[in-house]
Structure formats: C-alpha cells, structure tokens
Amino acid sequence: MNIKPLLGIHHVSALTANAKENYHFYTKVLGLRLVKKTVNQDDTSVYHLFYADERGNPGTDLTFFEIPHSGRTYPGTNSITATSLRVKDNKALHYWKNRFEQFNVDHDEISNESGRATLSFRDQEGQRLILVSDENNVGVAGGKPWANSPVPQENGVVGLGPVHLTVSRPERTIKVLTDLMGFREKDGYTKDEDQKQVRVFETGEGGTGAEIHVSELDQVGRERPGRGSVHHVAFRVEDVEELNKWVDILNANHLSNSGFVERYYFRSLYFREPNGILFELATDGPGFEGDEDFEHLGEKLALPPYFEAQRKEIEARLEPLDTEQ
C-alpha cells in the first residue's frame, strides 16, 4: 500500500485533577494559549483543554483531560515518562530557568540531551516536562507563540518536542515504530544521572518535532496513572485518506484498534503498541477555527455539533472555568 510517512508528533494528552490550576499554570506561567475549551468526548462530564501556539497548529498541542479527585501517579514502566516542549534557542532556556525560579516551579539545571540543550521541570501535579532548544534543529518546523502571551514571543514555546517512552521490552515497541509506523533509528545517548541508554527514532522530516525517545526499565511495575501522568501521544497524518489507509494497515497486522474516530477538530485512530502505551494517529485538519474565530479561541465552552443538543446538561455538570482574556 502506498502510504505517506507520518509527519511528526501531533499532540500529547495528559491528566489533571484541577482544571483551574492547570489553566493558570499553562497559560500564565508557561505562556501557552488555550485554543480550545471543550469536553472529553468519551466522558462529557469533564473538561478537555487544548494548549498550543497561537492557533493550535498540528504539533503544538499539549492537552489535558480533567479527572477530578484523581489520585497521584505512581511512576513505572510501559508509559510516557516525559513530554518535551520546544523553544527557539539556548538563550531561551536561561530565560525559563529564571522564570521557573520566580514562580517556584520545580526544575533541574540546564543540561545536554542528544546534542541539545534541555531544561527538565515539573508542574504542580508532577507532570514531567522538558524544554528543549531548537538552536541547531533541522526538521519539522515549529509553530508561532501567541502575541498576547505573558511570555515574550522570542522565548515562547513553539511546539512539542521529543516524547519519551519507558518500556519493559523495548524491542516490541521499536518493532512497531520501525516496521509498522515507518520511524527510522537516528542515534542514541546516555542519561547521565542513571546511565540509562536511550534510543532515538524519527519520522518525516525529523528533528525535535518528529522524535520518539525509547528507554528500557524492566525492574519495576507498570506505571499507575493519575494526576500528572500522560494518557497518550498522537502522531500527524496528512488527511482522512491517509488515516483510512492506516486503519487497513493496523487491521492487516492484526493490531486491535478503534477504527476511524470523528473528533471534529481532527480525525483519529487509536491503538496500543505491544507494551501497552496508547498511540493515536490524527489528521492535521480541520483545526480549531471552525467554531470560534482566531481572536477568541478558547474563551467559551466549545462543543462539536453532535453534542450541541446536550449543551445545557453538559454545562450543568462542569465546574465554571473562566478563560476569557
């Protein structure tokens, strides 16, 4: 079957127990734009918040499902253990280190990972995040930080960077990435703090916006997710025609999957790789401006047309969340 390579990382979706605190941190501290305030389409009683560049370009979305009263995360294997956010250059990392100190954000020192300057940090729920410098990056282009962000545009987050997977049997995950999904092995590196070997895989044009980093951890149990954990990673597919080809490919390889799923802002397909991590394939469009104009993205509760008849009931179950600028 003639199929195009995956274009890179589309989005990462994580869990939060508190939408208000989450909104404050990701918009007021990290300076991302809330481009869509909607609901979890599989459970409309909770929010689904999309933070991104100025208009939610593919490859820039970090999203959160609110699961009120969710417990803590117990770290372990067979999980997404870090999400990277791209910034323009090394200088920006020094800006962020100072900003984290100003806002009392838990962070490490600036270091080097796979030939790039990085800065690891955690949000108030322990979400594991890494700022990565694009100073020497060649590959998938980043987005454009929102002009009205509290963070100056030259230091703003331009998109998602490498997603880190920790698995008990890496050969199983790697086989799916390379033989099925078309990723190619790029290089590797050693994490200094624990001498852990990390293998790097890329797709499409490559670069920070198209990498998966895989490391092995087999002496602890599976991660128990909760607030501060990652739910899934999504990869970019050009359009619906390509997505339908992937449905056929997964079926031909006897991989259980969701089949085509309508998400309104994009179209999706879900499956679990052999170590149990949830992967999504998502189309680049239609995007977030079909039901809100650019100037007012994320200010009101947006519902796909197939939920509009239930708006009153849905709004009654949600805690109010003021996101008007």
Automatic annotation (TrEMBL):
This is Ring-cleaving dioxygenase. Keywords: Dioxygenase, Oxidoreductase. Residues 8-134, 159-284 form the VOC domain. It comes from the Bacteria. InterPro entries: Extradiol_RC_dioxygenase, Glyas_Bleomycin-R_OHBP_Dase, Glyas_Fos-R_dOase_dom, VOC_core. The keyword ATP-binding does not apply. Signal peptide: none annotated. One of its GO terms (molecular function) is dioxygenase activity. CDD domains: PcpA_C_like. It holds the Pfam family Glyoxalase.
